[in-house]
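Now for a chain:

_____
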Amino acid sequence: MPFGITSAWPKMFDLGFLLVAPYTAGMHGILQRWLRFPLAALLVGWGPHVLGAGQPTPANQPDAGNGSTNSVWSEYPYPIPDRPAAGSIYHVSTGVSLDAAGALSMLSGSRLVCLGETHDNPEAHRVELEIIKGLEARYPGQIAVGMEMFRSPVQPVLDQWTRGEIDEKTMLRGTHWYQDWGMDFDLYRAILEFARDKHIDVIALNPPEEIQKQAAKDGDAPIDVDPYQRKAMEAVFGGHMGGPKMFDSFLRVQLLWEHSMANRIVEYWRSPRGKKKRLVSITGGWHVQYGFGVPKKVIQKMPVPYSIVQIEETYVPPDKADRLMDVKLPPLPLMPANIAWFVDYKDLPGQVKLGVYLDEKDGGMTITKIVPGSAAADAELPAPSQLISIDGQPIKDMVDLHDALKGKHPGDKAELILKSGEKRITRRLEFVKKQ
């Protein structure tokens, strides 16, 4: 079968200006709670936010109340400082401090470069783009990018994008960006624009939705998993799953993702267009950390030299403390990465919050609930109601909504047209800063 036709789960919308309920079918039913992030960000994208085995929790760290440091890296033969400066880069197995050029030189020897990110941190995506640009400069026309953020059936749309045949809105709609991934596209725009401008192949790594749902339902099927991966996943996520059976269902989907990603990478390399190319994969941290996820599954299918870059937050400030998972990893006789690249933990600039729960269906956006104390509540937006337009721009879907709000800043005002029952209603709203 030709590449792009064969082989991620539905994530709910979180654009900073929205709050929405988690999807309750399939694996999204695991955690019945309101989530600020898509569930996959909680389950597989928070590698940097896990405290190491035997390390102090935020409550008993010296600077408790002022944020949390990252102590995962202090246990290895060449310990990394407890709070390295943003921009610090370390070769983990030797403890050698590197600059960006040195790190890129080391990564140049790998055919597969696995980047482990924190999904909502723009600084992580800045580093990813720096690495992609550096490798493309060394190997012009010989670099591809694989992204967890896309399901494999949308590969033809990504190919149109990288050939420069479609605009951003068409690409977002065609790849179901907000339905399938849900994170603010501003986080990934620069990477995808660079890929388009340089005609770099972008490979959709995640499996089709129907395969994923089936994996979640196969509750009694045996699970073939690396023993260290099971230990790590049980430590990190087992306490959040509500029991062994639910954890096994989560683990089954996690492994499906990783086998799918590995299959997609190898399938690409075996195709004419990818035969001699190097590939940079962009995934959540736990898909690549320690090597037992995507890297091991790739080399089981095609042995190639690989490197893991874990992009780590050097410090989690107090206003983001709710994103820190306080767990203790069991001893693992494995290096978590080849390179640890430290960054600040930031937010996208200028984000605002509308303060509504939305349901996208039948070619429109329905406001189903208003968040108390929000801009929408202050403007007395009715719920339920259909959002017709913002400042005269029609709103048919999440792509329209994001486009209408992307230039807004705290304090800006907008005119909203809504339909409640048979009545058209006009409301003026003042945006507030995203919390």
